[in-house]
């Protein structure tokens, strides 16, 4: 098992353990349907790698890693309701499986389990609380105040996607007991990666095959949601180049502080490349 698979296995095992003790059993099964349905586990991997790169032991960051994945999963449940999307990660979305009301309760349950994992650390609670405020503002902006220019889109992407990426990395640095400057640098890195991820996601929504992507495509256009491709009128290739610029800025932030584990830092650099080049 390679290093990344080892980290992913730690996250999967802890996720399963969290789901198994949720009460009542019906809610636990629904949370498991959402949380254990697959996914790239990018955010929890960032948490663990950031912890190592900041000089900590990744196993000390497992609970925070699982917590940020639960928060992300909760946001996806709501996204799928807003988008009327019946498929998520190649399987039925929560609302398509349980109905709208039970899906919203499942989202609440995911958040509750997440905050139980963060509650042991005041700094972790602050990091995630700030991220959720940003995420909520981003979701509201997307629904009622559609951006019409590139700079407005970038601010939306920072809130909607960058905020949780930032929280993931900052949680890892907090788990390593890093100083405030290091926590901030990791946050800047991950926020840039998150924005690059969102730009690339919009490009894929406009160009990829739904079977390859594992979810419906063309959603941005169908739902009249702000898409980087449509707002800027850039070609998909030009959109990907914009994503690359964000990824490059993220790498500069990462390199602005002393890194304790170069192997972990190398994986974080690889991630900045992956989010730009990914095909799903």
Automatic annotation (TrEMBL):
Gene Ontology molecular functions: metal ion binding; prenyltransferase activity
Gene3D superfamilies for this protein: Farnesyl Diphosphate Synthase (1.10.600.10)
Keywords of this entry: Magnesium, Metal-binding, Transferase
Keyword ATP-binding annotated: no
Cofactor(s) for this UniProt protein: Mg(2+)
Pfam family, one: polyprenyl_synt
CDD domains in the record: Trans_IPPS_HT
Single GO biological process annotation from the record: isoprenoid biosynthetic process
Record family assignment: Belongs to the FPP/GGPP synthase family.
Protein name: Polyprenyl synthetase
Originating organism: Halococcus morrhuae DSM 1307
